[in-house]
Amino acid sequence: MNKRMLGAAAVAVVLAASAGVYFATGQTPAPASRFVLLDGSTQTTADLKGKVTLVNFWATSCTTCVAEMPEIASTYEKYKGRGYETVAVAMSYDPPAYVVNFAQTRKLPFKVAIDNTGAVAKAWGDVQLTPTSFLVNKRGEIVKRYVGAPNFEELHRLIEELLAQA
What we know:
There is one protein chain. The protein contains five helices and eight strands. It has a six-stranded mixed β-sheet. Strands 2-3 form a two-stranded antiparallel ribbon. The longest helix is centred in the first third of the chain and has 21 residues, at 2-22. The relative contact order is 0.19. By secondary structure, the protein is of the alpha/beta class.
């Protein structure tokens, strides 16, 4: 019994270490992506360099996504004047009319993109679960990945730290 537990613990340590390597933070460059915004304009990840950016993958059919949007909007409003940006990327299966309606009725203050082909989600690690968000530093590196709603208190502390960096 003790050998089994020891073996299970060793496997857990190896898996945890592997996950830590896979989700390394502050080292991974954000993938080169082209976001098609609701107004028809485009933005690339290269355009976001010099800003701290939250890239949020979401869907109108995702209850957690809908529930977190007011807090994402509040976070954007709090930091936008200091070099913070948000890009909310609607998943490819989300009907564009629903996305437009959601963004307009909730008066989302940040950039909203539609990932019609799924290419953006694929580039960012084949995102399938929503919400999934990535915090990107001024150098264009992924600092943190959140699957599910982030702890906004922790997110705000991290944003503050990243905004203070040169």
